[in-house]
Amino acid sequence: MRRAGRHAHHVRRRVPVRGDPRRAAGFLLKDTPPDALRDAVRTVAGGDALLSPAVTRRVLAAAARSPVADPARLAGLTARERDVLAQVGAGRSNAEIGQALFLSPDTARTCVSRLLQKLNARDRAQFVVIAYESGLVRPGEG
Fold it and tell me: 55, 66, 99, 130: which has the fewest Cβ within 10 Å?
């Protein structure tokens, strides 16, 4: 890398991506420390998703400002799906969800993916909002 004044020149490399590259597997802020960034990459590479605590706080603050969701939105969920949603809402990874609900990490991942479709949610951040709005998760629990 060559420095020209205050601007650095960077070399870009293409990295093969599996699946849909538009779907994020994690959310971090730009000021995330290097150690936390390395841990996040390992978590995502292991197949889990990641939502940093700082991002979670911002999502919850936005949810607190938004109107309460329709409780009928969860009416079609099974008890197990509600349990999984509550775990995601509490910020747990797929591995942690599997451990808490006695599921394999792959089964937990499949449950989360199906819930995304069933609730028409974009990502885990939306799950956090849905879990709080529906009362499945309350501040200070979990």
Answer: 66
For 110, the 3-state DSSP assignment is helix
Return the sign of the alpha-carbon dihedral for residues 8, 11, 48, 70.
positive
| Element housing 38 (H / E) | helix 34-45
Rounded CA gap, 88 and 125, in Å? Answer: 9
Provide the token pair at 113: 């993916």
Burial class (CB in 10 A: 0-12, 13-18, 19+), 48: buried
Q: What is the dihedral of CA 24, 27, 32, 38, to 10 degrees?
A: -50
> pLDDT by residue (tens digit) across 43-91?
888 877 777 777 777 777 776 666 565 667 788 899 999 999 999 988 8
